[in-house]
Predict the structure.
Amino acid sequence: MDAAKLMFKQGLMAGERILVTGGGTGLGREMSEAFAKLGAEVYICGRRGEVLQQTADEIMAAHGGVVRPIACDIRSAEAVREMVEQIWSTGGALTGLMNNAAGNFISRTEDLSPRGFDAIANIVFRGSFYVTQEIGKRWIAEKKKGSVCSIVTTWVWTGGPFTVPSSMSKAGIKAMTESLAVEWGRFGIRFNAIAPGPFPTKGAWERLAPGVSAVESAASAANPSLLARVGEMHELCNLAVLLMARGADFINGQTIAIDGGQHLMNGGSFHRLSEWDEAQWEAARESIRGANEKDRAQRTT
Ligand code: HXC
Ligand code: NAP
């Protein structure tokens, strides 16, 4: 992330204590860096202890602050409980949770084994719930406010062919976001979600676009022409900070896409018409006028 492109003032997140699941790599790492740069104390978790340690060291070397790595497999409710206990015992309550950890791969749905489905659903659907519930219970018991943000995908609106376990699981997280925004809103705990379009990362591209480089992805990005590119990390980080920091407390229960409009474009029927030139439009107009005239000639009223 280009830290100079963060929109927020230094120190904005001082006093915040945020857990970023999957914070050792990819988008989670980028958001952890942004939170740390703006003064938050950040916990990052994942299954690879060395990756987490290296990320924490690199962020602290670049920006100072405190980034604490904790190896934890969020598929285990017991491991999650232990992690949260460890966090609380090293400085008290968290103020925020970023549900970012996920697993995914492309597969024809008819080829998926039950274990293949579970490999994704257990991380995304179940694991995100375990972490959210464990932290939420503590906030409620201690009468503490909190902010939960979850990284989903735009597939929560469009569906995701060839990524069905992920789409189903992310849609579940959106439902959790909307449900708990209301149920736990009365405790001062708010819930939002971010649905990123393509932001090339090693983890995602190896599993979703094998053999396709980030540059090739940018060239074929299917979003409106002036934005025909993939996302830039500072753009995601700015949205994540907005949702996690104090000052936007009235935003609750929302899932916000950050995709240059891509899902709207591809959800509509006619996005390919942006490739037409003037002659094609003129020919279409003529053809439509001809059809209208023919119908008009047959009208009896
Ligand atoms: C079919 C597959 C498969 C594939 C694994 N499986 N890969 N089936 N096609 N490509 C099956 C295996 O055969 C096995 O079932 C079962 O899944 C479990 O496999 P394991 O390798 O033992 O799983 P595990 O070690 O638990 O790893 C989980 C994982 C892995 C999800 C499979 O990819 C992972 O750790 N991912 C974490 C990082 C990640 O995925 N990042 C991308 C996030 S991007 P059988 O029956 O054979 O035993 C994202 C959205 C991006 O989420 C949106 C972009 C726009
Ligand atoms: P990534 O680098 O592979 O990130 C996934 C992270 O989740 C890894 O750090 C991984 O660490 C962690 N993780 C996986 N299983 C875990 C488990 N059981 N317990 C704890 N941590 C676990 O991929 P990414 O692209 O940054 O994806 C991050 C998030 O963004 C995901 O939610 C993804 O769905 C979402 N997203 C990404 C894009 C994109 O274009 N990149 C678009 C839309 C949404 P370990 O392997 O060490 O556990």
Remarks:
- The pocket of hexanoyl-coenzyme A (ligand 1) is lined by residues 102-105, 107, 111-113, 115-116, 119-120, 153, 166, 198, 203-204, 207-208 (CB under 6 Å).
- The radius of gyration is 22 Å.
